[in-house]
Amino acid sequence: MKLLVLAIGDKLPAWAETAVSEYRKRLPREARLDVIGLRPERRSGQPGERIKAAEAARLLEKCPRDARLVALDEHGKGLTTRQLASEFQTWSESGRDTVFLLGGADGLAPEILARAELVLALSPMTLPHALARVVLVEQLYRAWSLLAGHPYHRE
Questions:
Q1: pLDDT (tens digit, 9 = 90+) per residue, 120-146?
Q2: What is the pTM of this model?
Q3: Domain that includes residue 133, residue range
């Protein structure tokens, strides 16, 4: 299984790049995680719906065929770390690639939310995009560590 994070936003602050890189390195080969940032749509007076549609097209273009889509949205389902680990286990057993989609400043287009097998909220609070990317990657590492019995996750 491959994990892929596709995110609108191609320029992260150095602290976020460092954190994402660190958690990616910690994951084993069988849970390889790639992170691709895509250029946000230019605003130039365009309505939010048009921006979301253009960004959705670019996100979907980068999705591997037959991959499971997980959309990140503040109105999505909140999971505990244990619940995320359970999902991670199911994803691993299926062998299908899993793609996490993070929208731009206007969020994700309705067609992505409708297509996603899971719409996931990282927090009931709104997070800056860079922080959301770090939290997602850290939680994927934490889910893996919990399943592997690694001491990173303690209760």
A1: 999 988 889 999 999 999 999 999 999
A2: 0.92
A3: 3-148
